[in-house]
Design a protein that fits this description.
Layout: H1 3-12, H2 16-25, H3 31-57, H4 67-89, H5 106-111, H6 118-127, H7 133-144, H8 149-163, H9 165-176, H10 178-218
Helix pairs in contact: 1-7, 1-8, 1-10, 2-10, 3-6, 3-7, 3-8, 3-9, 4-7, 4-10, 7-8, 9-10
Length: 219
């Protein structure tokens, strides 16, 4: 797995909707059970999505795996990420302060204001981890490199482990020191609200430029 993909995974881990859901779940009477269900269903959804995408192209003779195919895939991925970065920079995506609304909107936002159940936690796992541009770009690069089935699965699992770093860390803290878990997530949430735009821009421009450059040098 390339450093660019790792950076994209780290940027995905501070998604405001996920942080809001984790913060709400930690305030319930049974945070460990709800957090376990939230993480399990979320990971199941995102890992299966990644596996289906990689396996759908695995073994198909599209020229993937060659230097030229990898180069083209990295150029396309880098260009997409750079376009996204420019859109964020100019306010076309997320406005000037994309992290100003840390809670999910609509019916999912209203769910967090009511009693949270195991069913709600199970739904929130996938809903707050809908695959976005960063994950799709990462999968595109993985497919282009044509890894074995095992290698592809390991790369998907590693990306998702980083993506779910905050919920998993919150669950560990909740088990070891329950009283501190919500406070820790609250601090992360506030820090993310203040720095999310900078994080997205730095990762997008850095990873996008690196992918584009490596692609151009490969073909």
């Amino acid at each position: 797995m390339t450093i660019e993909i790792l950076l994209l995974a780290l940027a995905s881990s501070v998604r405001p909707t996920s942080l809001a859901a984790v913060y709400a779940l930690l305030a319930t009477a049974a945070p460990r059970r709800l957090m376990t269900v939230y993480i399990a269903t979320g990971l199941l959804f995102t890992v299966l999505f990644g596996v289906l995408v990689v396996l759908a192209f695995h073994g198909i003779d599209t020229g993937a795996g060659t230097n030229q195919a990898r180069g083209v895939a990295e150029i396309v991925s880098g260009a997409l990420v750079l376009v996204f970065a420019v859109a964020v920079l100019t306010g076309r995506i997320g406005g000037r302060h994309p992290a100003d609304a840390p809670k999910p909107v609509g019916r999912w936002g209203r769910l967090l204001e009511h009693k949270l159940t195991l069913r709600t936690a199970a739904l929130l796992g996938p809903v707050t981890h809908i695959p976005g541009l960063f994950y799709l770009v990462a999968l595109n690069v993985v497919v282009a490199h044509q890894p074995t089935a095992v290698e592809g699965l390991l790369e998907i699992l590693l990306y998702n482990a980083i993506w779910f770093l905050v919920p998993i860390g919150a669950l560990v803290v909740c088990i070891v020191e329950p009283a501190s878990a919500r406070k820790v997530v609250g601090l992360i949430q506030e820090w993310t609200k203040a720095h999310a735009r900078v994080i997205v821009l730095v990762v997008s421009f850095g990873a996008g430029a690196a992918l584009l450059l490596r692609g151009l040098l490969t073909i």
